[in-house]
Amino acid sequence: MTQDARLTAQFAFLNEADRLKSVLRATTLCDGSRRENSGEHSWHLALYAMVLADQSAPGVNIDRVIRMLLIHDLVEIDVGDVPIHSENGQAHASEATVKAEQAAAARIFGLLPPDQAASFRALWDEFEAAGTPDAIFAKSLDRVQPVMANLQSGGGTWITYNVTADQLETRVGSKIARGAPRLWDWVKAQTTAFFR
């Protein structure tokens, strides 16, 4: 691949990635003024990883976690966001959704030069599988950030979707606790006032 072809492919990917800024999520900004977009969510999660690195398990590579978080939702360009507390949220891992996300990953990462396409796709697959310490911690942060936004905005989507404390524990808390148990203990304590 020539240098010009490589740059053309890299900018094709970067221009496509810009579309993530147009994917609206159910979660609002912390001030509740509007819904956040998936690009903002990904940036915020990368910052969460930098700030909360001390909550990760020994051996977690925060640089890899940040890279995962920056690309983890790119498939939403094609598939959209499925809020975890929505009616379809529990079916998020449905066969149809998984296939759609796999196809989106192939298309979007396939825009990159072959070496980067393979590397980015492997990192995305690792995040999705949540089997490595890096991916487990990344998934934990992906669940923490919306909780904090809901707390800051006076309940946010918890009110919209009639979320209960039990639902928060099973759908979110267990995933946070798997990768950052001390973090979940602290966050859970913050939610008790809301779920009285």
Automatic annotation (TrEMBL):
GO molecular function: 5'-deoxynucleotidase activity; metal ion binding
UniProt-listed Pfam families: HD_3
Limits of the HD domain: 17-184
InterPro entries: HD_domain, YfbR/HDDC2
Listed GO CC annotations: cytoplasm
Record keywords: Hydrolase, Metal-binding
Protein name: Hydrolase
Species for this entry: Paragemmobacter aquarius
